[in-house]
Specification:
There is one protein chain. With about 240 residues, the protein is of the alpha+beta class. It has 2 domains: about 70 residues, GTP Cyclohydrolase I, Chain A, domain 1 (Orthogonal Bundle), CATH 1.10.286.10; about 140 residues, GTP cyclohydrolase I, C-terminal domain/NADPH-dependent 7-cyano-7-deazaguanine reductase, N-terminal domain (GTP Cyclohydrolase I, domain 2, 2-Layer Sandwich), CATH 3.30.1130. About 40% of the residues lie in helices and about 20% in strands. The strands form 2 sheets. A 5-stranded mixed beta sheet has the order 6-3-4-7-8. The chain has a 3-stranded antiparallel beta sheet with strand order 1-2-5. It is globular, with a radius of gyration of 20 Å. The protein binds zinc ion. The site of zinc ion has 5 residues, from loops.
Length: about 240
């Protein structure tokens, strides 16, 4: 039985669920480790191997597009730069496991809301930018644990840093919170983002934004609770 007096580290291994035929958002290299029973992030050497191979093929990609990158002093190292940016930053969430989440005992039983959490992601369809914010609310059960605040940011960051669709990102953030706060009274996740694949290509509409929301528990069932959450969101959006 878990103690309510000490910090609690939640087992989050079940959150990334690749299958033999589908890496499901993480990299195939990380999928293969997990399927072998090695539940760890890729090592720096394993990431370097990916960067070297990805740089080779990105050079081929640029050549196919007619870019004389090898003879352009501004672009001669671009394949390596791009590969490093993808592995270390843009798609970091494909190569690292979500860090352990520790929660702390508390008697607080009100609503906890963090707004304007930055979202930087890419759409799975065109690999164009998704830029926006996430707003998260949760209500711990009475006498239960609360998360360190930055963990909400880290959860958003982990699932944002890969190619995907915003609908899945919203669900992944919610599912993770529901796992690490198992006795919660309710969880609310809103993502509000602008998509470059709408503004810069195809229909080319500037200014359109996409909102997705996943509400459960009191946020879904109690209008006053939902209204309180959206009041915090409105205030935060107005101030920003
Ligand atoms: Zn797209």
């Amino acid at each position: 039985m878990k103690t309510k007096q000490t910090p609690l580290t939640i087992n989050i291994e079940q959150l990334e669920q690749p299958t033999a035929t589908f890496a499901n958002g993480i990299s195939t290299q990380l999928k293969n480790l997990i399927l072998k029973g090695e539940h760890r992030s890729l090592s720096p050497a394993e990431k370097e191997d990916i960067i070297i191979e990805a740089a080779f093929y990105y050079g081929k990609f640029l050549t196919a597009l007619g870019v004389d990158w090898e003879n352009d002093p501004n672009s001669s190292n671009t394949p390596k730069r791009v590969a490093k940016a993808y592995v270390n930053d843009l798609w970091k969430g494909r190569y690292d496991l979500l860090a352990e989440i520790t929660s702390f005992p508390s008697n607080y039983d009100g609503m906890i809301v963090e707004t304007n959490i930055p979202v930087f992601s890419q759409c799975a369809h065109h690999h164009q930018q998704i830029l926006g914010v996430a707003h998260i609310g949760y209500i711990p059960g009475p006498g239960q644990h609360v998360l360190g605040l930055s963990k909400l940011n880290r959860i958003v960051e982990h699932y944002s840093r890969r190619g995907q669709i915003q609908e899945d990102l919203t669900m992944q953030i919610h599912q993770t919170l529901n796992t690490v706060i198992p006795d919660n009274v309710g969880i609310a996740v809103v993502v509000d983002s602008k998509h470059s694949c709408v503004s810069c290509r195809g229909v080319k509409h500037q200014g359109a934004s996409m909102q997705t929301a996943k509400l459960t528990g009191a946020f879904l069932q109690e209008p006053e609770c939902r209204e309180e959450f959206y009041m915090y969101v409105r205030n935060a959006v107005t101030k920003s």
